[in-house]
Amino acid sequence: MRTKRRLQAAALIAVAVVLGLFTVQGTYALWSAAAPASPGTVTAASFDTTMTAVNSGQATTMTLSNGTAASLTLSPAGILGPGTSGYGGVAVTNNTNAGGQFNTAITASQPTIANVNGGSLASYISVNAKSAASSTECSTATGFAPISSTGLVSPTVVKGASTVFCFQISLDSAAPASVKGQAVTIQTTLTARQLCGVPSGC
Amino acid sequence: MKNSTLIKGTAAIAVGAALLLGGGGTLAAWNDQATAAPGNIVSGDLKVGLNSAPGVWTDRAGIDITSKIKDGSYLVVPGDLLTFKQDLDVTLTGAKMAANITASGANATNGFVGDSVIVSAPVLTVGADAVPNPLTTSKKVTATITFEFKSGTKDRVDVNKTYNFNNVEFILSQVLPAGA
Question: Is the entire prediction scored with pTM above 0.90?
Fold first, then answer.
């Protein structure tokens, strides 16, 4: 008697499963169609900025291939004497390959002046700077001013264009004879920043 | 005695056969017939395909940059917002035809890292409105995908990277209408 009930229950379950499968498979049997599209590939631009020393013509990309920041020697022209100045500069070019608008602004930080091999020359050196449209302006003594703590910001540099930073290094006219022959290292950091050139993009 | 039985049986069969033949006489009685023409049963159709007009890429200002995307000359920068639109022709015929259309961005190859880009799933619209699934009639459906390179991307993150959409698939699947 018990075996009979078990058989009946098993049969009932089997029928239910079969009916269930038929029900599910029925939906698969309905029509369907598909259409593929290939929108294509979107590629990001490069952010390449080139620096060229005005006096020497030496050039480098702002970021090296290994991702580190490049260092460029500007080699200011002239030998400093008390009350005289030397001039140098760097041209910065926006070399991006962006498809649309890509404007940048370059900022030159407040310079640091450090004595080389000791000495006290640094305290008699001052650095002024100006932003210029052409490297020829670097040899004229007008327009230079100290760089503030927020840095000297260039005008907008559009794709493919350049801006120039000119530097004036001066030796205090009160510099003592003891600093003769000494050297200093002057460093400033240039930072290129993308402006919100994409309309409504920021 | 056996022969008698055999003879009787044979006779009975013969009588039965004769009765059957006699019954055939009813074929000669009246009869009539009529023909009906139920007609043809024709199946409907279900089809989805790309509209003959190719998909279009536009930038944030709405300028068509399709050819530049195709030849790889349009390179995106942070702040870019690109939109791709593709029209689809949906064919649906049948008295009780109903179908849902869905889309999937399949097999995208994304070289961008982090969260510098936002790529929307394909959005389907009929005119300016969302697709009213299930569809019951043939119509043009527009699929839209947006690609945003976030303006907050810092340093040189994701320069020269690519996002390949590969195949985006649009699927039209018949459903049983209510009461079918």
Answer: no
